[in-house]
Amino acid sequence: MMKGTRTKVLAALALAGALGLTGSPAMAAGSGAATAYTCTGGDVPSGTYSRITVTGMCSVGAGAVIDVAGNIDVMAGAMLDAQSAPATIMVGHNVTAGAGSLVGLGCQPPSYTGNSAHECAVEPEGHSTISVQGNVTATDALAFLLNGATVKGNVTFTGGGSGIPWSIKNNTIGGNLTVSGQTSEWLGVLFNRIAGNTTLTDITIQDEHPGAPGVYVVRNTIGKNLTCMGLTPGVSGGFVPGSVNVVGRNAIGQCASLV
C-alpha cells in the first residue's frame, strides 16, 4: 500500500478510536468462563468470550489475547480496529461487518513479511496472530483491512467503499475470496494463499494519483480460478519485473495477463 493511503487509514482509525474513548464501556452478559460481550466503545480486553458484538468505536490493545467461541459481529456504522496494535485473536465461527462499518484485522512488520507488510502503528516490530475458523464477510462496509490472517472458510466483501483503502494481504484463505461492487480509493489483493477461487468484479478505484492502474492483484497463490471483470480503470500486477500470480486452473478476464 502506498504511504499516502496508509496514512489515510491510520488517520481515520485514530480519529474513530479517539471518538470511541468517549463512548460507553464494553458490556458482558451472562456468567461463566465464556460470556457474550458487547463493545460500545474503547478497548476490547483480553478474555474468553462466547461471542463479541461491536456497536461503537472499538479497538484491541497491544498484546491482547482474545478467544471467541462464536462470531465477532461488527454492526452497521461501528468500528473494530485490530490492525493498529499486535494482538492474538482466535474466532471459532465467523467475522461479519455491516453497512458503513470499518474493520481492520492484523498487522505485521517488514522484517516479518517483507515489502508487503502492513505495519503496526503501535509496536512497529510486533505482529498479530489472527485465526478465523469460519468465514469473513462484509456487506456495504466503508473499508475492511485483512492482513496476515488465517481464515478456514471464505472471505466475501460485497458493496461499500470509501476514501479509505481496502487491504487484503498476506492471508491464508481455505475457501474462496470474492470481492464485488466496491467504489474505493485503493484496493489491493497481495501475497495471499487462497485454496479456492478468487473472483473480483465491478470494482471502481478512484485513486487521486494520476495514471493509477486500478486494483492491485500481486503475487497471490490461488488453488483454482482467478477471475477479474468490470474493474475500473484496470488491474496491476505490481512493479517488480517477473512478479506474477500462481493459479492452479484458469486466469480469466482482466487478470489473464497477471500469471
Structural summary, described in words:
The chain has 259 residues and is mainly beta. It has one domain. 8% of the residues lie in helices and 44% in strands. The chain has helices at residues 3-20, 110-113, and strands at residues 27-29, 35-43, 47-59, 65-68, 72-74, 79-82, 88-91, 95-97, 102-105, 129-132, 136-139, 143-147, 149-151, 155-158, 166-169, 172-173, 177-180, 183-184, 187-190, 193-194, 198-205, 215-218, 221-222, 226-232, 235-236, 246-247, 251-253. The two termini are 21 Å apart. It has a 27-stranded mixed β-sheet that branches. Residues 1-7 and 14-25 have low confidence and may be disordered. The chain is globular. β1 (27-29) and β2 form a beta hairpin.
